[in-house]
Amino acid sequence: MTGTPKSLPEPKLLLASASPRRLQLLAQAGIEPDSLLPTSVDETPLRNELPRSLAKRLARSKADAARAMAARTPEFAGAYILSADTVVAVGRRILPKAEFHDQAAECLMLLSGRSHRVYTAICLLTPKGAIRQRLIETKVRFKRLSREEMDTYLGSGEWRDKAGGYAIQGLAGTFVVRLVGSYSSVVGLPLYETVTMLEGEGFPTRKGWLGLA
After folding, report:
1. Which letter does DSSP use for residue 97 in this model?
2. Using CB atoms within 10 A as the burial measure, which of 64, 74, 91, 101 is most buried?
3. Is 102 exposed, middle or buried (0-12, 13-18, 19+ CB in 10 A)?
């Protein structure tokens, strides 16, 4: 007589980031990571590196670093690892993640009245050892900013540690004249592509949907 077959444990999802924005976007999709594994990688662009190449390289580097961290914790064995990186560029020029007032001011002056591109790369490492990557490109156009608009935005401090010196989900959303592509990608994590990638690799993305109402 055979016993009742044991159900397989739910797969774990590890997010290689501590970004509140990425957590909020995953929560919007009904997904809650089992653990956060923020990594510290050198984000300096290589010589002549293109913006899209930088985003892809950093997303992969973060995923690899998180995998190395997870390997030291037995309960994370067989987990999915998700990472992302966002790069803002005007042409081939890569804008920094603004840390200082002057950096943010330079970004705003460069973005004012013109279009720029936001590249967000996602990388997924699966329990079976597969590596899946996607790059999402979004075109954003800013209005021409007045000196008062720049000064008050800089005074808000919202630009700190934001690629390109702005957060589209915040006050800077009022600067956007046109957006072609993925809004959630500009925020930091393209929802459609992320969920599609997870589902394609067998992760139950809708397990948390029941009982949300």
Report:
1. B
2. 64
3. exposed
Kindly state the DSSP code that residue 16 receives in the 8-state scheme.
S
CA separation for the pair 138, 111 (Å, rounded): 15
The alpha-helical segments, DSSP class H, found in the chain are 20-28, 51-70, 101-111, 147-156, 183-187, 191-200
Helix axes of 20-28 and 191-200: crossing angle, nearest 10 degrees: 70
User: Among the options 42, 85, 102, 151, which is catalytic?
Assistant: 85
DSSP bridge partners of 86: 120
**Quick one: tokens of 40?**
């510290």
Is 151 labeled as catalytic in the residue annotation? no
Q: What is the pTM of this model?
A: 0.91
Model confidence pLDDT, tens digit, residues 161-175: 999 999 999 999 999
